[in-house]
Amino acid sequence: MIILLRLVFGVGLGVSLYYTVIYLIGGQRRYLVRALRTLLVTVVLALIFFAGVAIEHLMN
Question: Which of 12, 37, 48, 51 lies at 20 to 30 Å from 3 by C-alpha?
């Protein structure tokens, strides 16, 4: 289950980063802000998840 979630977060980060770079190069500011927001949310969710996994691992 954890491997699947890591894969999902990895794909999400990759896609968000891809669109951020594409919009940055293309100069589409409105879409760039949305892509950066999506990237930030994905990173925060991944950090919360992996911190929880690390704490659970330390508790056992």
Answer: 37
What amino acid is encoded at 33 in this protein? V
Alpha-carbon span 40 to 59, nearest angstrom: 29
pLDDT digits (tens, 9 = 90+) for 10-51: 898 999 999 999 999 999 999 999 999 999 998 998 899 889
Q: Are 32 and 23 in contact (CB under 8 A)?
A: yes
Q: Residue 40 is encoded by which pair of tokens?
A: 């930030």
Diameter over CA atoms, the chain: 49
Q: What is the DSSP string of the chain?
A: -HHHHHHHHHHHHHHHHHHHHHHHHHT-HHHHHHHHHHHHHHHHHHHHHHHHHHHHHHH-
